[in-house]
Amino acid sequence: MSSTSPSHWRADVYILSATLLASLGWIFSKEVLAGLSPLLFIGLRFLVAGFILLPFAWSALRALSSKDIQRLSSVGAMFALGMMLWIYGLAHSEHLGVGAFLNSLSVVLVPVVALAFGEKPNRMIWLSLPLALLGMALLFLENHVALGVGEIAYLLGAVVFAVYFNLNSQAAYRLPLLALTALQLIVVGVITLTVSALLETWNFQQPIALWGWLALSILISTCGRFILQTKAQGLAPASHVGLIMSLEPVWVALLAAAWFGESMSAVQILGCCLIFGAVLLSRWRSFWSLLYSWRSRNAAPPSPH
């Protein structure tokens, strides 16, 4: 076993934990939406989380130029649009598991959007797209279920997130990850709270339990998730992190079944499997690299004889 394997195992634990915390965020968010306006919730969640992370990223932020901050803010604006579509989908759809798999389509779309940035996706991307489309069809054609506004919001959000991931990867290539995260969370909070003030009626007379769910969403699914994800990104390649993070919709479906009693028909489960398969296919090289890495770590050391 190589001397670097402890770092690799820590990276795997961090990524898996971050994915689980992100999945719990779907549950916490659904509970908060029972009594709080969607955009107000997202604004409070991200603004508070950004300010909590700010002290840890302050030295790195002070070193950024005004041009860097402007670039990060523009990327954060795209993140805000994606989050507004996501929370709208969450507020107007009934099935968290289906929504999570629709949201995961952003992973498949990232390389396609990358064409606009001069990158050339590999052949597996083009094979994964029809698989994802077939999975979507199975999700919605069962019992003649039509696309609702919530599902459409998830799909639009997946496209926006694909654009955001491409923009963010360019920014993350040369900027400290924690500083990037803290600033973007604050930008998302400011933008969504501004839109909320224009479109929603604010009401803060909520049960104490709701504020508890909001606190869990801020501390666990936002701050905790991004801290663990940042640690993982410092120990493993981005493709490695992204591949394990693609497990999020699986966690969400399982948690939603346990928490809200959600269920899917056999056809819908098949649709989810096809979408998840499309996600893995789109990251085929990363998938084999990850398997090879795990196999190398678990292999017995060579005999000295």
| Tally of distinct domains | 1
* Individual helix count: 13
Secondary-structure content class: mainly alpha
Q: Write down the secondary-structure element order.
A: HHHHHHHHHHHHH
The tally of beta strands, per DSSP, is 0
Strand count, sense and closure of the main sheet?
Answer: none
Low-pLDDT sequence parts: 299-305
Mean pLDDT: 83
Rg over alpha carbons:
20 Å
What fraction of residues sit in β-strands?
A: under 5%
Instruction: Based on Cα principal axes, name the global outline.
Output: globular
Query: Between the first and last Cα atoms, what is the distance in angstroms?
Result: 17 Å
Indicate the percent of residues in helices: over 70%
Explain what you see:
The protein has one domain. By secondary structure, the chain is an all-alpha fold. Helices cover 79% and strands 0% of the residues. The protein has 13 helices and no strands. The chain has helices at residues 5-32, 38-62, 66-92, 96-103, 105-113, 123-141, 149-172, 177-199, 208-233, 238-245, 248-260, 266-282, 284-298.
Q: Which descriptors apply to this entry?
A:
305 residues; mainly alpha; 13 helices; 79% helix
Note the topology.
Elements: H1 5-32, H2 38-62, H3 66-92, H4 96-103, H5 105-113, H6 123-141, H7 149-172, H8 177-199, H9 208-233, H10 238-245, H11 248-260, H12 266-282, H13 284-298
Task: Describe the structure concisely.
By secondary structure, this protein is mostly helical. 79% of the residues lie in helices and 0% in strands.
